[in-house]
Amino acid sequence: MHDMATKIIYFTVNGRPERAEFPVDCPAQDVKDLFRAAAEAGPHDILKLYNPRGNIVNISLSLEPNSPNSRYKLEVVAADCNSAEIAGALGFDLFSMEKRLQGLEKKILMEASETPAVVYEMKKQVDSFREKLESVEHLSWLGLFKDLSDGTHKPSPFYHKRTLHKTRKECEHVREKFLQMSSLQVSEEVRQFLKTPTFDNWQWEDAEIMVLLQVMYTDLDFIAAFNIEPEVLQQFLFEVYRRYNNIPFHNFKHCFCVTQMMYGLIWLTDLKSKMDSIDLLIMLTSAVCHDLDHTGYNNAYQINARTELALRYNDISPLENHHCAVAFEILEKTESNIFRNVSMDQYKRIREGIIKCILATDMTRHNEILNKFKSILPAFDFNNRDHRDVLMMILIKVSDISNEARPMEVAEPWLDCLLQEFYNQSDVEKLEGLPVTPFMDRDKVTKPSSQTGFIRFVLLPLFIELANLFPCLEQHIIDPVRKALDYYTEMEKALEREKQNRAQSENAAKSKETTVGPQSPADSHTDAGHEASQPDAQSTV
């Protein structure tokens, strides 16, 4: 019989049934290493587990225990293809050798009380061989054999970070991981999943997200078409990561979600056959950069608090202007300028397009842009430059507010993050004596009430107009949004019922108090006065 403090997970790897057993309080990295060993994967390969429903789940201590009849599936979703070639060229596979040795040691331990000396000797030889290999100067790039993990693990979506800006240590750690992973070949299954609105961002760490962004630029043929050097793209993506702040919602993961939705829309609507490659490049890069250096306080706050940004941009879309400026600050550096090999005319078009797209994400311009799109829709022409420009603005707007088009388990944590940021702003507004943004006030807004109006009056009208141009989007983004509206409408009704029940219970309790025990005329008079005032009190609940 197993100790209650032990967790057992049944899974398959390459069709082979396996079983992982680990203490519930062991370090998170040990769990990952256990699965890495089972998959015989390299230290920087990306592993993911699929649950029996086919959804990706994170390899962590919170894995749900299962039975041999409902196994998880373990897959290496991004692997270093060079490693097999290197091993073949050298005539050995050191990593597999180590894993086989670990397996042998495990079997011996099950049958014997202690590890025999011969196994220690073999381990010593393998370690010594690895040290020699890594010390050879011309093979030092074989980071494949180095284990640089430090036991850190992905935060939950509901994280509070100590500092607004990322620390140098934090950036360097992620940069190192990303560069180790940047040459990995991402599996075809994940590449296809990346093209759908159902993609789950919560199962990917920041370094892995950068690998996925790299895949998007590659699979849309931007690398070849615009002569983007891989190391320049990597530096650009790292600089972008660095300039997104540690805030609950407008962070690097949000940047990825917006970009991934834009990428999905490009594939779903077959824009590759309808628009120039340069326009697709503008849209994807605009999505990547659209919230750079966001501080978690919206334009209304910037203007009311007369912040440096509001003064600099004369109260005109201060945040969006700032996001653009930071994007071109990154692109001004040669080492991170992914457009450094395009012609002057192409660069001018790209710059104009990115500025137009990012400025379109200011929600105060929502009706203006939507009405413009509605007016051209009946005679929309992909050959008309003005029409294409408006469509590009609509696409980034849709991508920016598209969380509710995702599965509920992906979308709902994002709403919690957004409300966290909203409540924080309204708290600061109250403290500073500024006008309080109504839809951010924690005393007036609930989770469902924040969504029902937004979905009904902002999201759906926008999505429906886009689906009028691309009917295929009906099932992909409109159906899920309608389901989300139903979900939050029901939640709002349930909260209202609960509120009414609570008010009735309180009234009943107070009425009971007035009838208990003998009362003097004075008491009776006081309670009658209290009862008389009760309906007014109830009406303000």
Automatic annotation (TrEMBL):
A GO term for molecular function: 3',5'-cyclic-GMP phosphodiesterase activity
Annotated region described as Disordered, given as residue ranges: 496-541
Record keywords, A-Z: cGMP, Hydrolase, Metal-binding
Cofactor: a divalent metal cation
InterPro entries: HD/PDEase_dom, PDEase, PDEase_catalytic_dom, PDEase_catalytic_dom_sf, PDEase_CS
Cofactor note: Binds 2 divalent metal cations per subunit. Site 1 may preferentially bind zinc ions, while site 2 has a preference for magnesium and/or manganese ions.
Residues bound to Zn(2+) 2: 291
Active site (record annotation): 250
Positions bound to Zn(2+) 1: 254, 290-291, 400
PROSITE patterns documented for this protein: PDEASE_I_1, PDEASE_I_2
Protein family according to the UniProt entry: Belongs to the cyclic nucleotide phosphodiesterase family. PDE9 subfamily.
Function: Specifically hydrolyzes the second messenger cGMP, which is a key regulator of many important physiological processes. Highly specific: compared to other members of the cyclic nucleotide phosphodiesterase family, has the highest affinity and selectivity for cGMP. Specifically regulates natriuretic-peptide-dependent cGMP signaling in heart, acting as a regulator of cardiac hypertrophy in myocytes and muscle. Does not regulate nitric oxide-dependent cGMP in heart.
Name of the molecule in the record: Phosphodiesterase
